[in-house]
Design a protein that fits this description.
Arrestin-like_N, Ig_E-set, mainly beta, Arrestin-like N-terminal domain-containing protein, 346 residues, Arrestin_domain-protein
Length: 346
């Protein structure tokens, strides 16, 4: 049995994340130690630890019975430190080596100008946040990781262990309070029901209703227009006020004069819209994907809603971070050379 195993390597990060949701931030120092516990005698030529960031995209296109795959890998940065030098033969036991890296603040990559460059960001830019598109086609990842390699001088026995680091950039501009949309999303509803009649039709009236256009026999309806007011821009940890307005319009003489409307509840979905590209021979290949990252239901307060179109709060202001247990999925909107991601709420 080989004494070389990745299970014998442990990467301990001592630095506390400085981000508000437990993420590391560009410019932060990442320090800790590598613990190596071989179960038997091993030969070691050297041990290295690498800190790197990668932006990776992959697109597969099918045409009939054939398919082509296009990949693009951009190294955002790569720092290497040799924490043990040999060659040495060491017995079974526990060995510790400290490490220390500083995450860069920005990254630069020279990419040949291509079509649809305006959808992305080129040249020198802030480090993008950790991101993973939950899709098999396209694939889009921004990852930051520590990788340890124990090299005995034999390529076959090189032992590796990695640890991913969640990294989000910090805005240099202080966050402003959530700003409401300039125009409000709207939805119209017409609800017809015979139960809205004060008395039910006789058989003769039912026949007249079916074969004539007598307005006095028209089925009563409730005709409302609904408007929502929500923030245009908000962070994952800002409290987000959401308001609702209903306006009732009488469209027929049989419509109820003043119906009572209550809010039973509503569901919000936050979706990412991601554009992805990868290099091909002579041109880029593009694909887009939508993904729901938050689906959250709010129970209504069962209070009466005004019918004049005035806005009322749906519920106490709530944070996006409180709507999901996967807070690291609430990645800030970003653009890189090959990935562009934004959000839409419905």
């Amino acid at each position: 049995m080989s004494n070389y195993s990745s299970e014998d390597i442990n990467i301990i990060v001592d630095s506390a994340p400085q981000g508000i949701l437990g993420t590391f931030v560009p410019g932060q120092t990442i320090s800790g130690k590598v613990i190596y516990t071989p179960r038997g005698q091993v030969d070691i030529n050297h041990v290295v630890i690498i800190c790197k960031g990668i932006c990776y995209t992959k697109i597969t296109e099918s045409n009939g019975n054939t398919s082509s795959t296009y990949r693009e890998k951009i190294i955002l940065f790569r720092d290497l430190d040799t924490i043990f030098r040999g060659p040495h033969t060491i017995p079974a036991g526990t060995y510790e080596w400290p490490f220390r890296f500083e995450l860069p603040v920005r990254a630069d990559y020279s990419r040949k100008p291509r079509r649809k460059d305006e959808q992305y960001q080129l040249g020198d830019q802030d480090l993008p946040p950790t991101f993973k598109l939950a899709s098999s086609n396209p694939e889009a990842d921004v990852t930051y990781k520590l990788k340890v390699k124990v090299n005995p001088g034999n390529f076959i026995h090189t032992t590796k262990r990695t640890k991913e680091l969640p990294v989000w950039c910090l805005s240099r501009i202080p966050l402003k309070p959530p700003v409401a949309l300039d125009s409000f999303s709207e939805g119209n509803g017409r609800f017809k029901s015979n139960s809205l009649r004060p008395t039910q039709h006789t058989f003769k009236e039912k026949m007249r209703h079916a074969f004539t256009s007598d307005a006095t026999l028209k089925t009563p309806e409730i005709n409302i227009s609904v408007r929502f007011k929500m923030p245009r821009c908000v962070s994952a940890t800002q409290y987000m006020p959401i308001e609702l307005a209903c306006k009732y319009t009488i469209s027929g003489q049989n419509d109820p004069e003043c119906p009572e409307l209550v809010l039973d509840g509503c569901t919000f979905s936050l979706k990412t819209h991601t554009n992805v590209r990868a290099k091909g021979t002579g041109c880029d290949h593009h694909r887009s994907e939508k993904e729901t990252v938050v689906s959250y239901s709010i129970r209504g307060s069962q209070t009466l809603l005004p019918l004049d179109g005035s806005f009322v709060p749906i519920w106490e202001p709530i944070r996006l971070a409180d709507m999901t247990s996967h807070v690291h999925g609430l990645v800030p909107t970003f653009k890189t050379w090959t990935i562009a991601m934004c959000y839409k709420m419905v």
